[in-house]
Batch of 4 targets.
Target 1
Amino acid sequence: MKVLSKVFSIHPLTVEDIQMEETREKIELFRNYYLVCFRSFDQDRNSPTYLEPLNMYIIVFREGILSFHSQATPHPQNVLNRIDQLKDYISVTSDWISYALIDDITDAFGPLIKRIEYEVDSIDELVLVLEQQDQDNGDMLRRIGTCRKKVTSLARLLGSKKDVVRGLAKRCKEDWKDEGTMSDIGLYLSDIQVHAHPYSRND
């Protein structure tokens, strides 16, 4: 990290965030780059740390990006695959790569939320059956407890995502006013906001 910070002129506060694994989702603009701290989760369903938060740190320069994470995650490879598919049709800028990483993280929550919705529907149906048959409901209580833990974990992970994206849009609008750049960033961020909104609503 010391070598990278020297080569790329990374601010000591950014180095500290990465090394201390800052958990707060945020964006910060610096003289020659901006930093995005965004949280994903362990997606390996067979792992003992399944659903545990995974911090991603994305340093976005005009010429490229550096991303940091403390354990294996599919997001960088997913973005590389996406670049390979789209490189003939889009301009692959550092802002686009940053957008693609954030978008991939956001999209990862969709299937998990769908599985939880199916589990809740299944529990609802079983409650009616158990009430009619007056059977032991120990298994039911375990399923409810597991489902509740998943929902609580998701709520913590999704809580500040909209604020980070909104903050990034605002800061970029104020501080990164190069022609062409803002229109690209605006499109990317509005796309993420559309995806993130259904996941983070409070109803």
Note: The longest strand covers residues 34-41.
Target 2
Amino acid sequence: MQFLKGQLGVKFKPFSKFWINESFTGNNLCEVVRGVAGDLVAEVQLIDNFTNKKGMTSQCYQIAYRSMERSLTDEEINELQWNVREQVQSKLKVVLR
């Protein structure tokens, strides 16, 4: 076994879920993500789209980070992910879930 029980834990959410507004677009999200993480963003993928009975739409995106030069640390990814979430919330006026 490569890792002992309890030795490896995910410290970041591997995806971001939020309620969107009418002006939200996936392209705007990608611009914000790349603005924060630059070339470390390998992929931004919509993995869930849900509209509730009140007409509010929630989308869930998975963001893959990758470096061709080195291994990324959990701390680096955690910081990037939290910065992305903050920027998406403030710039795109979405409500994080």
Note: Residues 74-92 form the longest helix (19 residues).
Target 3
Amino acid sequence: MKEIIHVFSSAFANWRLKLRSQQFELHELEREQYITNGEEQLLYIPCFRFLDKASIEEGNVKSPCTVTQVQKLKLFCGMFIIWVVLLIPSAFCAEVGTIFC
């Protein structure tokens, strides 16, 4: 949860900055650090680009987010949208089945 808040707050703090054209210019840790921590480095996804501003190092944020942290949030947002879109019709179908029995 702290990671999600950190990415959103960093992206909001850097909202006026220009997003760089190359994704490899964003803040990222070395691959060896991910291996020693037992984590997996996620590759860049070109959706939800406004969140990429959280990885810009020259902004107002003391510690910018890594590209992997931003990608985790992007994956979560994508899954959350699918979950909401499928939950609402399922709830209506379940409601109809219980009312008219």
Note: The chain has three helices and no strands.
Target 4
Amino acid sequence: MAMSTTRALTGPPSDLFNPPFRTITFTSFPAVVLVSTHLRHAWTALPPTPSPTDDDVMAFIKANHALTPQQRLEQVPQNPDKDSIDTPWRERVLERWMSVFVDVSAFLQEVGPGVGHLRTWGKQGVEYSAEKGSV
């Protein structure tokens, strides 16, 4: 894969092997840039139907791709509920995100030891800590 990673070394020398923060750059992997950009837009958009399907997410991405940034601001209705994660629309969007996560996880495993690996999850598989702001 043509992704790159940058480690932020702000602490002791041990950070070289176990960095507290890692930046991943997708600029040389346009498919990941394109898909992740449209999925970010889908996450904040108002669901097109009460019971969305994967086809609805793909239709959103296709329609969103045809719009300019200004048209997106004007034409794509935004979901006023910014906090709910467990919604039918966001569950469908998250399923599409999984393909991005799998690609990035495969890349990170090639970067070096201690990166870990991604386990695909079910509904109960991801824990979010609002206090720490991390997954």
Note: Confidence is low (pLDDT under 50) at residues 123-135.
